[in-house]
Automatic annotation (TrEMBL):
Record CDD domains: S26_SPase_I
Record carries keyword Membrane: yes
Domain of life the protein comes from: Bacteria
UniProt name for this protein: S26 family signal peptidase
SUPFAM superfamilies the UniProt entry points to: LexA/Signal peptidase
Length: 147
């Protein structure tokens, strides 16, 4: 078989390969996104203008110490990057106990996170706005994209 049949077969394979590439690209965008750091609240870990790769994740996937991106509770409408200091069931960190009105030995309630900036002097975090709902979670920082 030659001629039009081979050309049609080659075009069909090319079309399938293009669709597969589009599907993989779409899936990657649903799983990962790039976020640019604004501000100094995460210095020295991340600096203004650095870009990070964020893997979309549920609250159940977050571990204390990981850096996460969440919808800012105050003011709404922007994203913030902070370190997860405690997840549901963990003891409430001392430095945020007053902000969340936690009794000594209290635990982080289900569905919530405690977030802290690495630069406490310049960070609006759970010390200021208390617990953050897991529904605000965008994902976990996987890696820095530029050095």
């Amino acid at each position: 078989m030659t001629g039009p049949v081979l050309v049609a077969g080659a075009l069909a394979l090319t079309g399938l390969a293009s669709l597969a590439t589009l599907a993989i690209g779409f899936r990657m965008r649903r799983c990962f996104l790039v976020v640019t750091v604004r501000g100094v609240s995460m210095e020295p870990t991340y600096r203004e203008g650095e870009r990070v790769l964020v893997r979309r994740a549920s609250l159940a996937a977050v571990r204390p110490g990981q850096v996460v991106v969440v919808a800012d509770p105050v003011p709404p409408g922007r994203w913030i990057i902070k370190r997860a200091a405690a997840v549901p069931g963990d003891p409430v960190p001392e430095e945020v106990a007053a902000a969340v009105r936690a009794a000594p030995g209290a635990r982080v309630p289900a569905g919530h996170l405690v977030l802290l900036g690495d630069n406490p002097a310049a960070s609006a975090d759970s010390r200021r706005f208390g617990y953050v709902s897991g529904g605000r979670l965008l994902g976990v920082v996987s890696r820095r994209l530029n050095a």
